[in-house]
Each structure stands twice: as structure tokens, then as C-alpha cells.
Amino acid sequence: MPTNDGYPTDDELEKVKEWDGIGDPGGLIDFLEEIWHWPDWAIMKKNGRTRLLKKPCIRFYLSTGGWSGNESIIQALQDNFFWHIFWVSSRRGGHYEFEIPLDRGKKRTQTESPPPNKEEEDERN
């Protein structure tokens, strides 16, 4: 649990760095939601398809909102292999996007069936 002022503790930041983000990306995402300041506004998960291979995935978005505590969490996350495997893009203003293939993140991040891709829709019609 973050400190009274909303900042993550050193132990929480270390946990982010050391989490098995490849084997348990859903667990890491759940933990990030627990320690993130303004999680209802700054975190979003939705089903989609990977940009490159068009495989079903969970798209995970983080926005720091300029909050230095959230920026500390991003710095810790950059030290986790999760970042290197699932990071897709960053935008000015502290916005980050990740794609977790459903076969990797299905433990805790899957919310519903992914949308069909164009070829699947054409086959149905």
C-alpha cells in the first residue's frame, strides 16, 4: 500500500522491479493497480489485437498524470523484463501502452473475448 501521501514505498518499487513480469504479467498489472495513484483515471485495460501479428491481446495503458510517484513506478517497471517484452509505445505527457498476448496474460488480465479481426469477420459473412 502506498504511503499516506500516495507515494509508493521503496519495498513496492523493488517488488515491481523483481516481479516475474513474463510469467505472471496479470499479477504484475494487478499490483500496479494497487499502488498507482489515480488508478481509476490513469489505468485502462481492454481487449484488442497486437499491432504486428494481429493476435488477440490485452492492451494495457498507464498514464502518470505528472505524479512523481507514478513516474517512480514507471522507472521501476523499466527495470523489469515485462517492459522489454510487452511495451509498445510511449507518448509525451507520461502515457505508456503495452500489449500482452492472451496466452501470456490470461490468468488475470483477460476481461472478455477479443474482437474478431477483419479476416474472421469476412469468413462469417
What does it look like?
This protein is an alpha+beta fold and 125 residues long. The chain has one domain. It is 42% helix and 22% strand. The protein has 7 helices and 4 strands. Strands 1-2-4-3 form a 4-stranded antiparallel β-sheet. Helix 1 packs parallel to helix 4 (68-78).
What is this entry, summarized?
The chain is an alpha+beta fold.
Essential attributes:
single chain, 125 residues, alpha+beta, four-stranded antiparallel β-sheet, 4 strands, globular
- Ends apart, CA distance between termini: 50 Å
Strand order of the largest sheet: 1-2-4-3
State the helix count: 7
Question: Mean pLDDT score, rounded?
Answer: 86
What's the SSE pattern?
Answer: HHHEEHHEEHH
Low-pLDDT segments, ≥5 res: 108-114
Q: What is the percent of helical residues?
A: 40-55%
Strand content: 15-25%
* Structural shape: globular
Whole-number radius of gyration?
15 Å
Q: What is the domain tally?
A: 1
The assigned structural class equals alpha+beta
Q: Can you count the beta strands? A: 4
Biggest pleated sheet? 4 strands, antiparallel
